[in-house]
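Weekly puzzle thread! Below is a chain. First person to post its structure in token form gets bragging rights.
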Amino acid sequence: MLTTIMFRLHPSEAQINQLNEIFIIYNQMKRKGYQLFVHGATGIQQKLMGICHNNPYVNTILIENKTKLAQQKTWLEKQEKYLGHKIEVVKGKITTLKEKDPKDRRLKGLYAHLSSLQSRGAALALQPIVFGTKSLLRERIRGKIAREEFKVRRDASFGCVGKAQGGVQNNNLKFLPGEELRISTFHKAKGTIPKRICVPLAVNPHQRAIFQEILQLDNYTVVVKRKFVKRELRYYAHVSYETPEPITRYRFKDGAIGLDFNYNFIILANIDKEGHFLSYQQIPFRNLHSYRKGRRDDYASFRLDKVIQYCLNKGKGLIIEDLSFDQSFSYNKKRNRKLTQFKTSMLPRLERKCARHGIAVRKVHPAYTTIIGALKYSWSLNFSDHVLASYVIARKGLGFVEDLPACYEWVLAQVGDVLKPRLNPSSPYRQWAQLYDLFKHYGVTPFRSPDPATNLKRNLLESLNTVLDGLNPATGVPPDNLTAGLLAGG
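Winning reply:
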């Protein structure tokens, strides 16, 4: 498991100038190296070595540039896939309208939209990237920050991956027992400027044992960062190293905790080993998509600690949905940002926290969890759809199969093949999908009553009557056996 810890550096005045020089040269090489990669140049490593004369730094820069270029190519592939899907959808709409009415006025707008999509697809190419952040560049363009401050905040980090050669850690960035970080500069010739500088760092009492552990390691990665804090430029060292996985202490012997993720809150449902509902908790979120990255990550980590504490309090493992965000469609900008946040930040952070605290995590298929909760358990439990979805997630994680109730099987038997099923016969959710499509087609929503024990069967009967009335438009009268078996024992 990868662990990262941060130490604050306290350089002297002379060391600050030397550190700033490293920041400038390192980031200049990174921008130059990326441009060489984009244009397919050869001998990139030799060209960068001619500038800085430090091979470990160059190796790290090459790794960062390759990663960034791979990300841009992935973005390009997704854009091509998305536009191709949109073009096919628009062509299908045009074909449908032309078959109905070749003179339909909507065809003009669809042709214009199709032409626009095809032009965007033809113009797709790797876009220039912003080193730093786009918001920082906008502030500089609008004149809100000075040029020197823009450079300091843009060139805000440098690091060295390092390689363990013969059991010896690369010496470019190395921690020393005297609570110092030894940093190699870009000056190799002997002279007034040293080849290496030793910068003191602060180790608080909680970090002292971790610092001693780091000193014994042969391989770790250090990234030095600088940022403005209360209008003061401060320096930090972020060290990452591999630690063994903790022993998993909280499993699924006594039940499980089901988690339903939403963009502004989390629902946790606690069930026993028999699958019975015990309790739930809702953890709200603020509008994280509007926060800056650092603040968003800190706040998300703070709220996810509530999930960990709930699991530790109940002594059970966590069951989450195996979400997939690879999609051929797009929402609006705001919702896309929220989905990206879950993919790149929230879910991986939650899994790391669970592993660190010894909480077992199990993933289940997310299909039809909300629908099953609404149609099967909303009458008996009378909770919101999200609470019921987390309940179904927990049950699926423990291996329970959600069979269709007898009353719904009877409804589907009455319907027959009125609605075309959209799932294969082998799918375990075929009947749930067919039932959901049926209710949606006739405008029937899942029933929730303040007193489910007395009103459930009566309201269910009214809903079924609505559906069956629609299936028999000639008479508008439901079959005589409508109430057969539904009101028994009522």
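Puzzle host: Confirmed. Bonus trivia for everyone else. Confidence is low (pLDDT under 50) at residues 164-168, 447-457, 472-490.
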